[in-house]
Design brief:
The structure is a single chain. By secondary structure, this protein is of the alpha+beta class. It has two domains: about 90 residues; about 230 residues, BirA Bifunctional Protein, domain 2 (2-Layer Sandwich). It has twelve helices and nine strands. The strands form two sheets. Strands 1-4-5-9-8-7-6 form a seven-stranded mixed sheet, with helices on both faces. Strands 2-3 form a two-stranded antiparallel ribbon. Strand 6 and strand 7 form a beta hairpin. The longest helix has about 35 residues. The chain is elongated and about 95 Å long. The structure holds 3,4-dihydroxyphenylalanine.
Length: about 350
């Protein structure tokens, strides 16, 4: 090693070992490794070292830096330990005092709602499926009985991509993908992200979450749909709630319904959450349209089904009492950390 480096090493090592306290140690550190320290000064002279010696010299300085840093840290640790021991013997440190509280992470309210639902539906024999966010027009619209000139397309303002594909406007396209992939009978749910090109306000987001449900079997009726929804509600709400169906129109179901549930906050008596009606609109649903089954490659003479499309934000808003949909993605941890039910 270069004699200058060697003597610097001996000197600083000695200083580190003999430093009587943390204060002095800091001073040694500053003089050796600080901006104006001895090692930094050496590195500055690198340009004056003959070119063939430069790499070896640079490396030697850096190695020394690493070595001294390790020594400094070890010595600091020694000081900390002896300080702690001193305090313990002096008796002014109470090791039984409670520690600083620390805050763990939490699941996002949407993740909680989704996980609860998935758990309940898996228990009822459903499979949880995934589908692409970038979707073909065919799966998002045509196969769901929404041809190009259908007015329903206008209610789903679409983000079209340059290549003619789109960001899926709902999770329903996975109905067709599921029928193509699985032999009936089957039951599936599809929680996932959807996109609509619409103005954002307290109840509309351009990016939102739905959970599609689909059951395909022989002789499926509206009774199966009602039973499934009531069972799901009982599992999640821990009690029996009434549901009611109102007619609703969706091109991919016939008949189509809006399913309401007794307001769980006032048990149907009327309150601000249900706007004094005693009912909360839960989800749109219906019996799978024969032409949708056909597009999925199934014979509607043999197979029947029901489907539903649950808005996950809406459900989370009702169950947690959140009144602005934008808060889910507002990124304010103080807001999100209020909603933790597990
Ligand atoms: N896909 C519909 C939407 O986003 C919601 C929907 C309605 C889904 C009825 C269904 C259904 O499965 O049966 O507007």
């Amino acid at each position: 090693m270069n004699p200058e480096l060697e003597s610097l090493r001996t000197q600083i090592t000695e200083e580190i070992h003999s430093a009587p306290d943390l204060q002095t140690l800091k001073e040694v550190e500053r003089r050796a490794l600080g901006k104006k320290g001895a090692l930094t000064a050496l590195l500055r002279q690198l340009g004056k070292v003959p070119a063939e010696e430069r790499p070896a010299f640079g490396k030697a300085v850096n190695d020394l830096k690493v070595e001294l840093t390790a020594l400094l840290i070890a010595r600091q640790e020694e000081f900390r330990k002896s300080e702690l021991e001193a305090r313990l013997t002096r008796g002014d440190f109470d090791p039984t005092e409670p520690g600083m509280p620390y805050d763990g992470g939490r699941l996002h309210p949407l993740t909680q709602v989704t996980e609860d639902l998935v758990r309940v539906f898996l228990g009822m024999g459903f499979a949880a499926l995934d589908g692409p966010n970038v979707e073909f027009e065919y799966y998002n619209f045509d196969a769901l009985n929404i041809p190009g000139d259908h007015p329903a397309r206008e209610s789903q303002d679409t983000f079209w991509l340059d290549d003619g594909n789109l960001l899926r406007t709902h999770t329903s396209p996975v109905q067709i993908r599921a029928m193509e992939k699985f032999e009936p009978p089957f039951r599936a749910i599809v929680p996932g992200r959807c996109f609509r090109n619409e103005a954002v306000d307290a109840s509309h987001e351009h990016t939102f979450y739905q959970m599609e449900g689909l059951v395909v079997d022989r002789d499926i009726s509206v009774a199966h749909l009602i039973y499934t929804m009531k069972t799901c509600l009982r599992e999640i709400m821990k009690r029996d709630l009434e549901v009611r169906l109102r007619p609703g129109f969706f091109p991919f179901v016939e008949p189509g319904f809006e399913l309401d549930v007794t307001c769980p906050f006032c048990e149907g008596k009327g309150c601000s959450v249900c706007k004094q009606t005693g009912w909360i609109e839960l989800l749109p649903c219906g019996m799978v349209h024969p032409s949708v089954l056909r597009h999925g490659g199934l014979d509607p003479e043999e197979w029947t089904g029901f489907a539903f499309g649950l808005g996950l934000q809406r459900l989370a808003m009702v169950s947690f009492g959140i009144n602005d949909i934008r808060d889910f993605t507002g990124g304010d941890v103080r807001f999100l950390s209020q909603f933790y039910h597990r």
